[in-house]
Design brief:
With 448 residues, the protein is an alpha+beta fold. Helices cover 67% and strands 15% of the residues.
């Protein structure tokens, strides 16, 4: 009885410990900085992990292509029960050929000596595909970091806009309280009071929208970083203007296009695929050549009248065979295969040419978008300073009875909008730099 109580006590505490551990894992507080986001995205992003597995598979395929240069060794064991033996009649006499039982052990070796170059070209194709996947993997890393950066800065942006919205709500509330006092004192009209109430009510949806955007941006970042959606994020950085381009910010558009030809991973991946497709033509041509192979075997056969066989009953034989196989006509399939291979090469050439145009357009779009964001940012900052001062003066004049309440409302609207625009301008400036680096193939410079 005491043993049962002791066992129940242990199980009870184990359940409590496991439940506590589960609850602790269920929700955690994750502190994130810009560097953490880059490191975690490169390590834990699920899509990137899947791409890495594709590369590992292709690495094994490359090794597999080398195995075709090695001989094939087979063992075969046969136990045969002959139900009916062949009978020959000669000169009126019947002759039974064979024995009721046959036992055989065979060890054979086959080595293709010449296969039209298919083994070598297949190995070259697999190597180029592996190189292509390596470039695609690096491109996927850049894409993952860019997506994570967009979500990360979107969180910071939404937090700043939330603060702006809260500030707008507080200002509108203070203005409403002030107008209410003036209205009670008889120095403000009913229209002034209604305008103040409408202004206060209009700021509330903006605040709620900012909170919702903050939550959605955080959830997107969690999914990119493979973090549980129930965990809480603490962002350590502020929405500051950051110079990601560094010396590349002074490069001309043409210089960036030239750099992209050497650095864009997707372009280099296509080049490797182009070589692989070209090797496919050589494999198709190799079908027109003969196949030469050598085979060797060692056989042990024991024909028996009963199933009681011993090793001394076996008869050994050895053979060495050199075979040449040359299909002379197969319905024209070899010619058609070669033509199909040439068409695929032409398709790849056209695709690369089309891709070059797409790359140039992508760089131009990123370049001009960055230039626009760079020029707009200072203008947005100047406008913010002006509208902030205008709001201060409007509130001061209205409190002294030298201005009407409509001027205060307009100043509030312009200040809130200009601050939101400035925050959005900082976000655009940072993200457009990262986008331009990715379009040129240099985004990995920020973490390498």
């Amino acid at each position: 009885m005491n043993y049962k109580k002791y066992l129940f006590f242990i199980l009870f505490w184990l359940m409590l410990i496991s439940t506590g551990s589960y609850a602790q894992r269920e929700k955690q507080i994750i502190y994130l900085s810009w560097k953490n986001v880059v490191d975690i995205s490169l390590k834990d992003n699920l899509s990137l992990q899947s791409k890495k597995l594709d590369y590992e598979i292709q690495n094994l395929e490359t090794w597999k292509s080398l195995s075709y240069f090695l001989p094939t060794i087979n063992y075969q064991g046969i136990v045969q029960k002959n139900i009916e033996l062949p009978v020959f009649v000669f000169m009126g006499q019947r002759f039974v050929v064979g024995t009721p039982y046959t036992f055989q052990h065979s060890l054979s070796l086959t080595l293709p000596i010449f296969t039209g170059g298919s083994r070598w070209f297949n190995h070259e194709i697999q190597k180029n595909i592996k190189k292509s996947l390596s470039e695609e993997l690096q491109g996927k890393e850049e894409e993952t970091v860019l997506n994570a950066a967009q979500s990360y800065y979107a969180i910071i942006l939404s937090e700043e806009i939330s603060k702006t919205a809260e500030e707008a709500v507080n200002v509108a509330k203070q203005n409403l309280e002030q107008v209410q006092k003036f209205y009670n004192a008889g120095t403000a009209t009913e229209l002034d009071l209604q305008r103040a109430k409408a202004q206060y009510s209009s700021t509330l949806p903006m605040l709620e929208s900012a909170f919702s955007n903050r939550k959605l941006a955080a959830q997107r970042l969690k999914s990119l970083l493979n973090i549980s959606l129930t965990d809480s994020l603490v962002i350590l950085d502020d929405l500051d203007k950051t110079e990601f381009l560094k010396e590349f910010g002074e490069y001309s558009l043409e210089n960036l296009k030239e750099i992209s030809k050497e650095n864009r991973n997707d372009f280099k991946a296509l080049k490797y695929q182009q070589v692989a497709v070209k090797d496919g033509e050589k494999i198709a041509l190799g079908q027109f050549t003969p196949t030469v192979a050598v085979a060797a075997s060692v056989d042990h056969v024991a024909p028996m009248d009963n199933s009681k066989v011993t090793w001394s009953d076996y008869i050994r034989s050895k053979s060495l065979t050199l075979s040449v196989q040359w299909p002379l006509f197969q319905g024209g399939r070899k010619i058609l295969d070669y033509q199909i291979a040439k068409i695929k090469t032409d398709q790849m050439n056209l695709f690369i040419k089309q891709f070059e145009f797409a790359v140039d357009l992508d760089i131009e779009q990123s370049y001009y978008t960055y230039k626009e964001a760079s020029k707009n940012l200072q203008s947005l900052k100047d406008a913010l300073d002006q509208y902030k001062e205008s709001l201060r003066i409007s509130n001061l004049l209205y409190s002294q009875g030298m201005s009407n309440q409509l001027d205060v409302l307009n100043a509030q609207l312009l200040y809130t909008k200009s601050k939101s625009d400035y925050l959005q301008g900082i976000y655009n400036y940072n993200i457009n730099q990262l986008t331009l680096l990715k379009s040129v193939g240099l985004l990995d410079k920020i973490w390498k």
